[in-house]
Write a structure and sequence with these properties.
heterodimer; A: about 300 residues; alpha+beta; Alpha-Beta Plaits; 2 domains; 4-stranded antiparallel sheet; 10 helices; about 10% strand; rod-shaped; B: about 230 residues; alpha/beta; Rossmann fold; binds adenosine-5'-triphosphate; binds magnesium ion
């Protein structure tokens, strides 16, 4: 295709977006909302996955044992903890070590707390990793009745909660996505039809003077692509704003940050360009392909 | 060269036999009037020549293309070898006169250099250079049809097909339109024109094909009253 005719056709496509602005706007909106929805769903689901992974990796069942427990009893407790099928490994943390770890963890944020406590108040601690998370509740129950055991912490409960909300949201998300896709198809189809109808004289004359179908489709292709790219860019921006404000909301809670390991979740700056690129490409693709597909049967003259 | 061999066209909707066993040869450089009463099959015949329709049976050859066997991918290429003029002009309202003509050259992917010299040339031929920047709605019917003629001729086709090109314009201006087609014909382009206006036919004369109920009723040359002028 000659350059001048190429730019003429591109201009035709872009001008048509304006001539056909009601339907163009509808297409733009539905594409934008769909892309925004997909982006946020993917990002948050990846994040929840990361959080679950963090908790599963770093947290074990923590068994606190009374300070006064004699040495041989500690060895015995260790053996008991180790004897269960679902126990993967057992680590012992001395009160001194626990004290150090605690100081490290909180050194800046709440230094004043340490005035009130010292290392002599720390219990003996066992951390038990399980090879089967589903046995968490059962294990906690068994550990609790061992002699000298003071307290058992099971962070897995929270993991199960996260997994269950993720499952729920996945199901809801897929349902919404299907609805969005359906609306997308209807709207893009009608936009293309309106656009073809508005230019039916153009098209019939083009057919009569020997334009190929590819040539006739080209402005429509550009029109769809143009709408799609803009929808992609806007959805990128909205994704960025939404995602960053949600993360900021959670990140302002330092405890939550620590417990969930939120520090490891995806920072938008890392994927800024990726999201922008993917959105524009997906928008362009959906817009262009949708438009060209929808106009297929209107081309027969 | 246009040739129809034993052509039948049957419209399923309405069960109409629009053309029955039509045999016809039109040689390169001819100027042919096709006449006949309403419903005789004139438009149907032209649609066969532009490959808008295929015959129910029989064969159609135009400009060396066997239209019955033409693959749909080749139709655009074939259509570039013909120019079409319609009763209702079919100009694009939101394009200027210049753009309406340039449009067909863009469609057939001519270079912008060629377009810049060809468009003024054909507009000059129909004496509409002055109106190049006007829009179709700012022109009279006769002027609009002249734009359409310029457009049909722009791609320098071997054959121009006109379906009642004078049907929507004042009878006095009809002569001017046919004169233009005659001028184009003198450059070597074959012209086939359907018309209802017997006065025009009598005035210009030449080869006349009369269709009657889908068959060729008369096909011969008559002398025109303008001859010797
Ligand atoms: N698309 C169609 N479907 C069904 N029947 C058709 C169709 N087009 C034309 N016909 C019929 O075929 C016959 C010939 O029609 P055609 O349009 O060729 O006539 P015509 O000679 O051009 O008439 P007119 O002078 O009024 O334009 C008519 O009886 C018409 O009703
Ligand atoms: Mg007709």
């Amino acid at each position: 295709m000659k350059g001048s005719n190429f730019s003429y056709l591109v201009k035709q496509g872009v001008v048509s977006v304006w001539h056909n602005r009601m339907m163009s706007f509808a297409s733009f909106c539905i594409l934008m909302v769909s892309l925004l929805f997909i982006c946020l769903a993917v990002l948050f689901s990846l994040d929840i996955g990361i959080i679950i992974g963090n908790i599963e990796d770093t947290n074990q069942i923590i068994v606190f044992v009374e300070k006064e427990t004699p040495e041989p009893e500690l060895a015995h407790i260790r053996d008991v903890l180790d004897s269960f099928d679902y126990t993967a490994s057992v680590d012992y943390i001395t009160p001194d070590k626990a004290w150090e770890m605690m100081q490290d963890e909180f050194n800046e944020s709440i230094a004043g707390v340490f005035d009130a406590i010292d290392e002599h108040m720390m219990p003996h601690t066992f951390t038990v990793s399980l090879n089967d998370i589903t046995k968490t509740a059962e294990a906690a129950e068994r550990f609790r009745i061992i002699n000298y055991v003071e307290k058992v912490n099971t962070p897995f409960d929270f993991v199960n909660f996260l997994i269950s909300i993720r499952t729920t949201f996945t199901v809801i998300g897929i349902a919404i996505l299907i609805a969005l896709v359906a609306v997308c198809i209807v709207i893009i189809y009608n936009t293309a039809r309106t656009s073809v109808f508005a230019r039916r004289t153009h098209i019939s004359i083009m057919k009569h003077v020997g334009a190929t179908n590819a040539f006739i489709r080209f402005p429509f292709f550009i029109e769809g692509m143009f709408i799609g790219v803009i929808a992609g860019a806007v959805s990128w921006y909205l994704t960025k704003i939404t995602y960053e404000s949600v993360v900021t909301l959670f990140a302002s809670d330092i405890m939550l940050l620590d417990v969930l390991g939120i520090n490891n979740i995806i920072g938008f700056y890392e994927i800024n360009w990726l999201v922008l690129g993917a959105n524009c490409l997906a928008g362009a693709f959906l817009g262009a392909v949708g438009t060209v597909f929808s106009m297929g049967k209107h081309l027969k003259v | 060269m246009v040739e129809l061999k034993n052509v039948d066209v049957h419209y399923k909707e309405g069960g109409v036999d629009a053309l029955n066993d039509v045999n016809l040869k039109i040689y390169d450089g001819e100027f042919v009037f096709i006449v006949g009463s309403s419903g005789a099959g004139k438009s149907t015949l032209l649609k066969l020549l532009t490959r808008e329709k295929v015959p129910t049976s029989g064969r159609v050859f135009v400009n060396g293309y066997n239209l019955s066997g033409l693959r749909s991918g080749k139709i655009p290429i074939f259509r570039r070898s013909i120019g079409m003029i319609f009763q209702d002009f079919r100009l694009i309202p939101n394009l200027t006169v210049y753009e309406n003509v340039a449009f067909v050259l863009r469609v057939t992917d001519r270079s912008s250099r060629y377009i810049r010299q060809r468009v003024p040339y054909v507009l000059n031929l129909v004496r509409l250079n002055e109106k190049a920047r006007a829009y179709p709605t700012q022109l009279s019917g006769g002027e609009q049809q002249r734009v359409a003629i310029a457009r049909a001729f722009a791609s320098d086709p071997g054959l121009i097909i006109a379906d009642e090109p004078t049907g929507n314009i004042d009878p006095e201006l009809s002569y001017e339109i046919v004169e233009l087609l005659k001028d184009i014909n003198k450059c070597g382009t074959t012209v086939i024109m359907v018309t209802h206006e017997h006065d025009l036919v009598k005035y210009f004369g030449g080869r006349i094909i009369n269709l009657k109920k889908g068959s060729v009723d008369f096909d011969d040359y008559i002398g025109g009253s303008n001859e010797g002028q």
